[in-house]
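forwarding from the other thread:

> can someone predict this with glutathione?

sure thing
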Amino acid sequence: MRLYDHERSSAAFRVRIALNLKGCRYERVPVAFPDDPADPRIEAYRAVNPQGFVPALEHDGLLLTQSLAIIEYLDACFPDPRLVPEAPVERARVQAVAQIVACDIHPLNNLRVRRLLAAELGQDEPGVDRWCRRWIEEGFAAFEAAIGSTTDGRYCFAGGVTLADVVLVPQVRNARWHGVDLTRFPTLARVAGHLESLEPFARAA
Ligand SMILES: N[C@@H](CCC(=O)N[C@@H](CS)C(=O)NCC(=O)O)C(=O)O
């Protein structure tokens, strides 16, 4: 497997965690995100993924994109451990929590959004950080409430790792970069602290 990757990408970090949990071996292909839109590396990578995002995963001659779709694919091909439960209700609950991060926080703070805020909307670095913190804090408040009755303090859903944990840890790393006060989210911070101590998460970081 080949993972088109960037060391600071939260979405690629999710896939690295999933690959490590499942014991998959993979080669990392670093992708550059140059500031200059005319840089030929941008067009070259669009030949791989026309959307220009990382991660993208090559497996068995297939090219897969979108981190959650890649993780569901890995879950189907390598079901041990299963990250998205099979039972309909548990599945919907895990996906709902994961999507707080993947759909409601992460897209608002993506590189292209931060670049637009800085280059076209006149925001300085503290202004961009403030924007990012705002959406992380709002999303984390929802995440904290959502796992309140499901967590055992080690995982978002008691008993084992799920997709919710896989998306949480990269977003917590990102929150630290933007100066979010994690003490406001004690349950989420405790779970993230435990997950970060686990080898598949630490190696992916
Ligand atoms: N929904 C996509 C998001 C992927 C994404 O936003 N990747 C970021 C890095 S975390 C990226 O490639 N950003 C480049 C850009 O914003 O131009 C996924 O989950 O894979």
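The chain has nine helices and four strands. thats all i got for now
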